[in-house]
């Protein structure tokens, strides 16, 4: 049995960060957390690029372009969408999460979802560095781990030490 895990010790990693200016009171804390994590894990500042976008809805476009550029090993998306009295919240959350997932799958690199989707400002504050930790920090740690996991998977696949057998359903399921 092979168990693959990414380590939290980056070799050489280049990180793009996309941060939303909307709810900047929250996103600036998320960004501080992400940068703190990257510094603690010895990612040089020259290997980090931060792009500010107007709001959460704009995050997927810039994340997708950063990921597709091949200049980054991972992209971290940071924002805060707080429920209001209209359905706008639901549309924004849905499209942002879909867009970030699509960016990751298309570029085949980790595009980390650090967009808080909360019911109120208090929940957002808790997740940006108080009771619930800092989700920006968590996303940066996840990015490092995922980059290392991909490198490990690529290395094992290239060495033929990891055989991948496709799933084949022998007979259709019958009621």
From TrEMBL:
Q: Which organism is it from?
A: Enterocloster bolteae
Gene Ontology biological process: riboflavin biosynthetic process
Q: Please, which domain of life does this record's source organism belong to? A: Bacteria
Check the record and name the InterPro entries matching this protein: LS (IPR034964), LS/RS (IPR002180), LS/RS_sf (IPR036467)
- Pathway, per UniProt? Cofactor biosynthesis; riboflavin biosynthesis; riboflavin from 2-hydroxy-3-oxobutyl phosphate and 5-amino-6-(D-ribitylamino)uracil: step 1/2
* Role summary: Catalyzes the formation of 6,7-dimethyl-8-ribityllumazine by condensation of 5-amino-6-(D-ribitylamino)uracil with 3,4-dihydroxy-2-butanone 4-phosphate. This is the penultimate step in the biosynthesis of riboflavin.
**Which residues of the sequence carry a binding annotation for 5-amino-6-(D-ribitylamino)uracil?**
22, 56-58, 80-82, 113
Q: What is its EC number?
A: 2.5.1.78
Describe the reaction catalysed, as an equation.
Answer: (2S)-2-hydroxy-3-oxobutyl phosphate + 5-amino-6-(D-ribitylamino)uracil = 6,7-dimethyl-8-(1-D-ribityl)lumazine + phosphate + 2 H2O + H(+)
EC main group: transferase
Q: Which residues bind (2S)-2-hydroxy-3-oxobutyl phosphate?
A: 85-86, 127
Matching Gene3D superfamilies, A to Z?
Answer: Lumazine/riboflavin synthase
MF terms (GO), sorted A to Z: 6,7-dimethyl-8-ribityllumazine synthase activity
**One matching Pfam family:** DMRL_synthase
What this protein is called in its record is 6,7-dimethyl-8-ribityllumazine synthase
The UniProt entry's sequence similarity note says:
Belongs to the DMRL synthase family.
Q: Which residues form the active site?
A: 88
One GO cellular component term of this record is: cytosol
Its keywords, alphabetically, are:
Riboflavin biosynthesis, Transferase
């Amino acid at each position: 049995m092979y168990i693959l895990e990414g380590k939290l010790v980056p070799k050489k990693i280049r990180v793009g960060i996309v941060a939303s200016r909307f709810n900047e009171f929250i996103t600036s804390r998320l960004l501080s957390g992400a940068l703190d994590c990257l510094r603690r894990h010895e990612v040089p500042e020259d290997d980090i690029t931060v792009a500010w976008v107007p709001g959460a809805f704009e995050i997927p476009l810039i994340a997708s372009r950063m990921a597709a550029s091949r200049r980054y090993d991972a992209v971290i998306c940071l924002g805060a969408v707080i429920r209001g009295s209209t359905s706008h919240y639901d549309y924004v959350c849905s499209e942002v999460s879909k867009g970030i997932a699509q960016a990751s799958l298309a570029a085949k690199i980790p595009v980390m979802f650090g967009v808080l989707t909360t019911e109120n400002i208090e929940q957002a504050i808790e997740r940006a560095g108080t009771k619930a930790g800092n989700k920006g920090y968590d996303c940066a740690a996840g990015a490092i781990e995922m980059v290392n996991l991909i490198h490990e998977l690529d290395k094992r696949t290239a060495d033929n030490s990891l055989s991948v057998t496709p799933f084949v359903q022998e007979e259709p399921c019958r009621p």
